[in-house]
Design brief:
The complex is a heterodimer. By secondary structure, chain A is of the alpha+beta class. Chain A has helices spanning 3-10, 13-24, 69-73, 109-113, 139-144; strands spanning 51-53, 79-85, 92-100, 119-121, 136-137. The chains are: A alpha+beta, B mainly alpha. Chain A binds chain B through residues 15, 18-19, 21-23, 25-28, 30-33, 35, 38, 152-153, and chain B through 48, 51-56, 59, 322, 324-326, 376-377, 379-381.
Chain lengths: 153, 418
């Protein structure tokens, strides 16, 4: 043990250093905890949360072209897309779109497969539901986005 | 009635004058004060510890969680009282009672001021050390009576730890007591009040007497007292990662809260011994260096100023409360609390109260520094391993304690005192 190490040990400098560190951290500015329902958490930009089906902002028409690529990409096969061909325009049009959130692992492969950027996993994270059926989202829910209950006294 | 109130002009403690009524009043005040201090300490510990760990701590029960300890106490009182089927019923019942009684009995001789003690014993320090070490008995009883492995191991650890550190503690205490003989007549004392008066006469806290030996003795005591009270980093008897909760694993509800109360009361008690022996007890800082009426008047405003500071802090908290309907009641409550603190501050400005409260204030202020240090250690240091604890106790603390004792005892014999 060198002289320097010995002095550090006898004078308990390491302990004092630790005490100084914890003392500095008492500054309220350092606090990282959020007061959740009142304070919204800072969700990362690349966070993959609630799925959402995009709609055209002006015409309110769905962007989905019912190509079924998301359903094929999904490793869990939890997306079911049904469509029917419009006889006038000769185009496939979306009828129903179900997304079983209870089986979703938020891998984002469906999002990547979507050719029109219609389906995306948003930053919404409040996905709790009172029933298993509530976890299976249909087309309207997907287009509207999750509507968590706001609790107030 | 007049005779009853005449005591207030007395220069002695109620115990010495044999004033039974005032002694009872003092005991009740001290009991209430300790209970309030434990509640405050509970809140402060959670808050300060949380801030050291960059958390918020309790925030929901009352403004900034101020009512959390009261809610916890209520919860504990209405919890089911469980006694293990195989437990030794009498001992199981006795253990928390003994621990609490020993923790509170110690406060009889603690001098909050020259007249502000229940009594002044001529063996005050011995009484404190003796009674406080009886608490180990309660802990062993708790561990044994629970008839379970973890409590037994916790009790064994606790007793061996307390017994080893008591020696180092004793060495430190003796060297402080020897310092009381460094006066002209060379008469030493064991009385808590006279120890403080000896520091007053020598115009120096024993912390700085014969520097660095007074400081070393204090330092040994400061470490040993953390070990004595089973607090981090010496909290092996109740190390939750190893022993669940140590000796009070099988206790719940009210009995557990008694252990909790006793632990904090013991912390207050040992801190008071440290303050009395080394930090000048009730004396205000620089009572000789900054003497004179002007300085006396200046320092006499400290108690009121402290409460005004708390008032301002609470008021700032009220103003900065989030603007949300759910916070209306909390806001009103914190505002009312701020007003109460301000009211106490105004009350402490009334001259007779102001004079009366001086010694108590400085004593409590010094003790609270120690209480903060307890939380600070807990937030900083990792727990010792048991063999390291014993090594520290027997191979470092006791030899250093004996060395300090020898120097402090021998130096005056050669007329070499500084």
């Amino acid at each position: 043990m060198t002289f320097k190490e010995l002095t550090r040990k006898v004078l308990l400098l390491d302990l004092l250093q630790g005490l100084a560190l914890t003392f500095r951290y008492q500054n309220p500015k350092e606090i990282y905890t959020e007061q959740y329902p009142l304070q919204r958490p800072r969700v990362a930009e690349r966070y993959r949360g609630a799925p959402r089906l995009g709609v055209n902002a002006e015409t309110n028409e769905t962007l989905c072209i019912a190509c079924d690529l998301c359903a094929l990409a999904c490793p869990e096969h939890l997306i079911v897309v049904t469509s029917e061909r419009n006889p006038n325009t000769r185009r496939k049009e979306l009828t129903t779109f179900t997304y079983d959130l209870s089986r979703c692992m938020f891998c984002g492969l469906c999002e990547d497969a979507c050719p029109t950027d219609c389906l995306e996993l948003t930053q919404d994270f409040e996905l709790a539901s009172y029933s298993r059926e509530g976890m299976i989202w249909d087309r309207t829910t997907l287009e509207r986005g999750p509507q968590p209950t706001k609790y107030e006294r | 009635m007049q005779q009853f109130l005449n005591y207030l002009n007395s220069t002695q403690t109620p115990g010495e004058t044999g004033n039974f009524a005032w002694a009872t009043i003092y005991i009740l005040i001290i009991f209430g004060g300790i209970s309030v201090a434990v509640i405050a300490m509970n809140w402060l510990e959670r808050k300060v510890l949380a801030h050291m760990q960059v958390r918020l701590g309790p925030m929901r029960v009352g403004p900034h969680g101020l009512l959390q300890p009261i809610a916890d106490a209520l919860k504990l009182l209405i919890k089911e009282d469980i006694m293990p089927a195989e437990a030794d019923r009498l001992m199981f019942w006795m253990a928390p009672v003994i621990v609490v009684i020993t923790a509170f009995t110690v406060f009889i001789v603690i001098p909050f001021g020259p007249t502000h003690a229940v009594t002044d014993m001529n063996i005050g320090v011995l009484f404190m050390l003796g009674v406080s070490s009886l608490g180990v008995l309660g802990i062993i009883m708790a561990g044994w009576a629970s008839n379970s492995h973890y409590p037994l191991l916790g009790a064994l650890r606790s007793s061996s730890q307390m017994v080893s550190y008591e020696i180092a503690m004793g060495m430190a205490v003796i060297s402080a007591i020897l310092m009381t003989t460094l006066t002209a007549d060379g008469a030493g004392t064991l009385s808590m009040i006279q120890i403080v008066q000896a520091q007053d006469k020598q115009q120096m806290w024993f912390l700085f007497r014969m520097f660095p030996f007074g400081f070393l003795a204090f330092f040994i005591f400061a470490i040993a007292m953390v070990a004595e009270t089973n607090r981090a980093p010496f909290d092996l008897p109740e190390a939750e990662s190893e022993l669940v909760a140590g000796f009070h694993t099988e206790y719940s509800g009210f009995r557990w809260s008694l252990f909790f109360l006793a632990e904090y009361a013991a912390m207050l008690a040992v801190s008071s011994i440290a303050v009395t022996l080394w930090m000048g007890g009730w004396m205000r800082p620089f009572s000789h260096w900054l003497a004179g009426d002007t300085w006396d008047a200046f320092f006499s405003f400290f108690p009121a100023a402290t409460f005004f500071l708390l008032f301002v802090v609470a008021l700032a908290g009220t103003v900065r409360m989030p603007k949300h309907a759910a916070f209306k009641i909390q806001k009103a409550g914190l505002g009312a609390f701020a007003l109460v603190l301000g009211g106490i501050g105004v009350l402490l400005l009334i001259p007779p109260v102001k004079d009366r409260i001086q010694d108590i204030y400085w004593f409590v202020a010094k003790v609270s520094v120690f209480m903060y240090a307890y939380i600070w250690y807990r937030g900083t240091f990792p727990r010792y391993r048991f063999d390291q604890l014993m090594k520290l106790g027997w191979k470092v603390m006791i030899p250093v304690g004996i060395a300090v004792l020898i120097v402090v005892a021998a130096a005056p014999a050669f007329n070499f005192v500084w």
